[in-house]
Specification:
The protein contains four helices and four strands. It is rod-shaped. Strand 3 (185-198) and strand 4 form a beta hairpin. It has helices at residues 9-91, 96-105, 169-180, 220-233; strands spanning 112-121, 157-166, 185-198, 201-212. Helices cover 50% and strands 19% of the residues. By secondary structure, the chain is of the alpha+beta class.
Length: 237
């Protein structure tokens, strides 16, 4: 028996058209939802990247400020070291190692030093050291003013307190005489000389005072000569 379709063709086509439109609308909605979701994810990631970038920029700025402060501190440290070295050169025209070497060079046989103390003082007003040698600067002529760069530290006097031991007072007197003839030392004076016994042997413990010659200027050759002589004198004890 043949099937007879009583539904009009227009109605069937209309239903199929509605179904197709509905499917297209659903697909379009899904596609738009996917696009919107993707766009939102991209915006969220972009905001996260922007926030991370700002955080990195903030850290970089702080690091740059820290580096700048460190460089400023290094610059100030170098300036302070340069100032300290300049001040040391002004206050100590003769290195302490050279002064100690000179004191050692003049030691008679059997005499040894036990203590050396250096004290810097301002000279009394009106006092002038008229005793000069080849190692001292020539004073400016009368009526000629000192250069503006002359520092007050150069006028300081270096006083020395020397203590040591000797076999007898003869060696102490010889040491005083040698120091008095030294180009670096002046105003040598004996404070005390006391007899002491060490392992049944008698020694003289002496104390001296002296001053560093005013405005002494040593050349490199003079310093090397003093130091080399001090190294050789070590083996004479």
């Amino acid at each position: 028996m043949a099937n007879i379709n009583f539904v009009p063709d227009d109605y069937v086509q209309s239903n199929e058209s509605r179904r197709a439109n509905l499917m297209c609308l659903v697909l379009f909605s899904v596609t738009m939802a996917a696009l919107v979701g993707t766009f939102m994810m991209l915006k969220i990631r972009q905001r996260a990247c922007t926030a991370e970038e700002q955080l990195v920029n903030t850290k970089m700025t702080k690091m740059q400020e820290s580096i700048k402060k460190f460089e400023d501190l290094q610059t100030k440290r170098k300036e302070m070291m340069r100032t300290a070295l300049t001040t040391a050169e002004l206050i100590e025209p003769v290195p302490r190692s050279v002064l100690l070497a000179s004191l050692t060079n003049n030691l008679p046989a059997g005499v040894s030093l036990s203590k050396l103390e250096l004290i810097q003082k301002e000279p009394p007003k009106g006092s002038v050291d008229r005793t000069r040698n080849k190692y001292q600067a020539t004073p400016a002529p009368a009526g000629v003013e000192a250069s503006p760069g002359a520092s007050a530290e150069k006028s300081l006097e270096t006083h020395m307190q020397i203590e040591g031991m000797a076999p007898s007072d003869l060696q102490v007197a010889a040491y005083i005489e040698r120091l008095g003839n030294s180009v670096l030392i002046t105003n040598v004076a004996l404070i005390e000389s006391v007899e002491k016994k060490v392992d049944k042997a008698s020694f003289r413990c002496f104390k001296l005072t002296a001053m560093l010659s005013h405005e002494v200027h040593l050349t490199k050759d003079d310093i090397e000569a003093i130091r080399s002589k001090a190294e050789r004198s070590v083996y004479q004890f």
